[in-house]
User: Fold this.
Amino acid sequence: MPRYRFGDFTLSPRRRLLVRGGRELPLIPRYFDLLVFLIEHRHDAVHRREIFDRVWSDVIVSDSALSQAIRTIRRTLGDDSREPRFIRTVSRHGYRFVVDAVVEEDDNDAWPTPAAASPVEPRASDVAVDAFEPLLARVTAAPSTALDEEEQREAAELLHALGTSEALARLGSRPGHARARALLRDSRWDLPNADRVPVLGGPAPLAVARELIALRLRRAARMIALRWAGASIGGGLAGAAAGAIGGLILFGAPGSNAPLAVVPVLGVIGAACGALGGAGVGAGLSLAEAGARSWRGLALTCGAAIGGGAVGMAVEWLGRWTLAALVGLSVDIGGSVEGVVIGAAAGIGYALATPSAGGGLATPPGRRRVYAAALTGLCCGLGALGLALGGHPLVGGTIHAIARAAHGSQVTLTPLGRLIGEPDFGRLSQAVLAFGEGALFGFGLTLGLTRRPSSGNL
Assistant:
């Protein structure tokens, strides 16, 4: 792996260092990878899609994330987008590293160790105080276009470069400060020298939190829609598989009177329940992942639980009303409690499987994706097992209860209980079935949720 010299800069991919005149210039890992990628492909104009697939291969992010990365790299190199010496924007395509005199050389052990890390941009002590005011005026103004929002974000990054603490002190509680604090809080994650921007303990914490969540959801709205749909499809396919498998076992069980038609019927019921559950839990996970970077695990768990509980409550009341109105059955159908528990279990599993998404929505590749789906499935299976042992059946147990209440039904699950060794569809049978339902749902949900869409759909 070579290192690169251009001008008075030296870039070492192996040591992950960017050095200028013996001084290390800090870049967060993804921005460092982007600079390496552009230099490696310096003879070509690199398409934005190629950058996303290479640098953000395990997450999906908005176009503005790439724009911010390019701004930060330019600022680190002392470049100007209007008269670029290093990185040129190629309209409607992407970017190109335009330095021709790049020297590749062996990255051997004789390379000198750089000096201690130091910011490229001047700090507040080196800059006139008036430098803050134009930037503060920009971040507190109400934006009217997408370009205004990007310019405000750039102003927030420059304020971090001048000095985060001084910027917050000077910002105070002037009009528009809540949005400005949200911008500063959001942008500080991508700047290695930015200080903390606390929400709690600062002026108007609720307003700042609201602005911060709205800002992140706006930037990720398109991705959230894609994730929500993918989770619904994944949950629906898992539900269809669970229903069809259960129907086949029921049809072939000794002493069963169930016809072969039970297989597609249970498959359709499972698909509908899985799709609805996937939509609710997936929406909660997507919104939480896009809106929270601090306390990510807690946010994912709460978001998924709320989404699952909302859908479960709607299904519970609709199911009870439908059975009572159409066939006169009064069956204790669950939904809300089950939705909360399964949703929370999915949130815990997903958070454990994707501990660091780098500000985007996780799309782990290959085996990591299967691992994430398996771990989430295990957590959902354990949650479903706890529900069954506590007397809260899932889809299979509910179908059994409805079948027993309806005269002449052929889909009671008693034969399944006999396969396990119980005289009826008892607690053990319910627990085994519930674990399988929950595990399949969590597995399918996560596979659908983490499917990486083509760059053209972002």
